[in-house]
Amino acid sequence: MEILRIEGLAKIFGSGELEVRALEDINLSVSKGELVALLGPSGSGKTTMLLCISLILEPTSGKIDFDGQTIFQKNGWAGVDMRRLRREKVGFIFQSHNLIPFLTARQNVLLPLNLIGIKGEKAENRARELLEYMEIAHRADALPALLSGGEQQRVAIARALANNAKLVLADEPTASLDTARGTKVMEILKKIARENQTAVIVVTHDVRMVNGFDHVYHLKDGRLNSQET
Amino acid sequence: MDLAFQDLKRHKGRFIATIIGVGLLFTIVLAMNGLYRGNIADGTALIRSTNPDLWVVQRYRGGPFNEQSTLPEFYHYSVESVPGVEKASPFIYYTVERLVHRQSRHFSIVGYDVFGGLGGPKHIIAGRGIGQAHYEMVAHVKLGVQVGDRIPLGLHTYTVVGLTNDAVDGDGDPIVYLSLHDAQEVLYQPDNEEVRNERARLLQTLSGQSYLSPDQAKKLLGPLQPDTHIVNAILVQMKPGANRKEAAGMIEKWLYLNAYSTKDEVQLLLKGRLASISKQLLLFRVLLLLISVVIISLVVYTFTMEKIRSIAVMKLIGAPDWEIIRMVLEQSLLLTVSAFLIGQFIIHNTYSKFPRTVLLVPGDDLVTFIVALMGGVLASILGLWNALKTQPATALGE
Q: How much is the pTM?
């Protein structure tokens, strides 16, 4: 089942002589349980594409369908509550983990649950399950500052999964980790895609990390110009 | 899960230091409230405590408290003859600085007709009232004397026969009650050397007049001595059912004096001597409240700016704006309320140690609290504005 479908997506910044075509004629389809990598050097448009897929940056043209609903078409955003869509259906994993520093690991996982209205014991149980799944339950009451980079990333992944996301977007999730920890994180993302049937899009510039992905796209000068499977 | 509380819990030290600092500022605000009230209460306490039907004073004067008023003592007979007047008593009031138990003390003296006249202390809390024409005094407890103590004032020594806690003077200093003639003596009676010098100077002046023989000049010395039978006001008690306004009008028209009700006397003080200090205190209150709000605003702004990336993450994962508004606003209100409670705790445990009267009124505390709360909300606007304009994209990238 198709979760994300992008057709002819373009993003242009500025106009006239200052015009920059950040994305051009992007076509992408991601299905349930699929693991997709977007590879590309700095300035290739990876972040712009991620922002468009995250429903944060409005594309200039094209069409985005998400979970059977048209989110963007040529007239602009389709009047959908983007933030609600993100909190209910999308999970985010960041390069620098981005855990809320004043919340413990457990509370960081509880936050998205609380945001979608799951509270009390039900939320506590779900948070514990996720931390156990990520093998970090023993550090549940630690503040992010007291966790190692790998531990923080595992908590961040648990947080991304808290809302039973249909799509997980990972922005350079291994960039701040050593190779061993990076590989471990990628294994976890594969596990999530396979076991939870979650669509996972990973933006990275590290080719070594994308072994075993269902699709690997190369982004160059704003164009998705090659595909490996 | 309360995000504001969790954040403050992780920054306990800074939170506590801030609320103590702002709490001390609120202490000063509340103390200023109390001083403002105390200033008015002290300034009008003697008027309210004495509370005659009319205060008769020198013409065109707003005395005896707001400005000086002097009248010959015998005028009270004329006032007593006005229709409707039951009783008219001479009254004298002045401020002195004298040694009491070897310490220099600033206090006020009230002289009144101790044999049934108006103007004496209403409540004696120890000992008794003045029972003889001379050398007895009733003192306010703030003077720090005991019944039986002997206090020298001027040429004589006075025995403390009673203590009162009725009223203090306009400066918050204690009041000492004396018989009218004792009070006049303490105020006007010079010592023997001064009398001798004055008599010699007067005799020399009179002797220089060619139309007076030396004997005539000596005979004139007595009558020409300064009169000490001077009072500051005459207190009037009306007959039951008598018209006070009519009596006041008659006193003003026929005796060429001014007559004020107790309410008028209070207004004279509030609009006169107490007005500028009250305005000053009001200005201080407003300034200190503003400073408190600015400090809270800066603290909330700093707290918010430190969380900008977290706020961006929250927005990215879909937190609605109201969740972020709640977090910033709650922090601001937690700071304000905690600081206010600390301020209240401190002032309610220290107000009695202030040298001037600090009169704490629950209504003032409530108004200050509401203003502080509104200030807390205002203070969070800068932080909120920054929080709400934060782009979720800030969370992406390094």
A: 0.74
